[in-house]
Amino acid sequence: MADGSPRTDTSTDDTEDKNQMIERNQMTGLLASDSSDRSKEKPGDQKTLRRLAQNREAARKSRLRKKAYVQQLESSRLKLTQLEQELQRARQQGIFISSSGDQAHSMSGNGALAFDVEYARWLEEHNRQINELRAAVNSHAGDTELRTVIDNVIAHYDDIFRLKGTAAKADVFHILSGMWKTPAERCFMWIGGFRSSELLKLLVRQLEPLTEQQVMNIYNLQQSSQQAEDALSQGMEALQQSLAETLASGSPGPSGTSGNVANYMGQMAMAMGKLGTLEGFLRQADNLRQQTLQQMHRILTTRQSARALLAINDYFSRLRALSSLWLARPRE
Prior knowledge:
Largest sheet: none
Shape: flat
Distance between the termini: 122 Å
Mean pLDDT: 81
Radius of gyration: 43 Å
Number of strands: 0
Strand content: under 5%
Low-confidence stretches: 1-12, 93-108
C-alpha cells in the first residue's frame, strides 16, 4: 500500500503536463492560423482602401468643377443683366454708356457690342413689320390702313440711321467696316450701308408699270443720288490719300531723340484730326439713304410704296440667306 501512492501522483503529473502541452500547441496553431488569415486578407483590404480614396478624390474634384461651372454661369448671367440694363439706359438717354469708370474705354469697347445687340433687335422688329405689311398687301387692305403700316416701316428705318449715328461716336470703324452685317451684305456696302442709286435701279424693274412722270422722277432721284455718292466717294479717297501722306511725312532720324518724338506726336495729332472727319462722311451717307427712301415714298402710290419696301426687304433677306449658305457650304 505504501508503494502505490507515489506512482499514482507521478502518473497524474505526467498527464497534466501532456494536456498543457497539447493546449499550448492548439493555441499556437490558432494564432498562426489567425495570422495567416490576416496576411491573406491584407492585400485585398489595401486595394479597397485605395479605391475608396480615389473615389473620394474624384468626387471632390467633380464638386470643385461643378462649383466653378456654376460660378461661371452666374458671372455670365450677371454680365448679361448688366448689359441689358446699360442698353435700357442707352435707349432712354439716346446714348451708349457703360458701368465702367473709363468712359473712353467703354465707348470703344462696349459701344460696338451695344450697337450689334441693338441692330439685332432692330432687325427682329423690322421683320415683324414687314410681315405685317405683306399680310396687309395680300389681304388687299384699304389705302388708309396700308399707309399706316408703310409709315411705321419708314419710321423704323429712321431708327437704324439714328442708332448708327450714335454708335459712330463710339466706334466709327465698326460701323464703316460692316462687321454687324453678314458677309454677303458687306460685299455691297458703301460707307456703312447700301448705295441708294443701285437700290433704285433694282426697284424700277420691280414696280412696273409706272407712269411717265414717275419714271422721270425716279430717274432724276437716281441721278442725284449717284452724284452725291460720287462726291462722297471722292471725299473718302481724298481723306485716305491725305492720311497716308501725313503718316509718311515723318523725317527719318535717330529713335528716341526729342526732335523725332515731337515729329511723331505731331503726325499722330494731325492723323487723329483727319480721322475725325470719318463720322461726318458716314452721317452724310446715311442722310442720303434716308432722304432717298422718303423721296421714293412721295413719288410712288401707297400700294407701290408697299411693294417697294417689300422688294427692298426681300433683296437684303436673300443676301443674308446667301451668307448662311456660303458659311454652311461643305469644305474639302
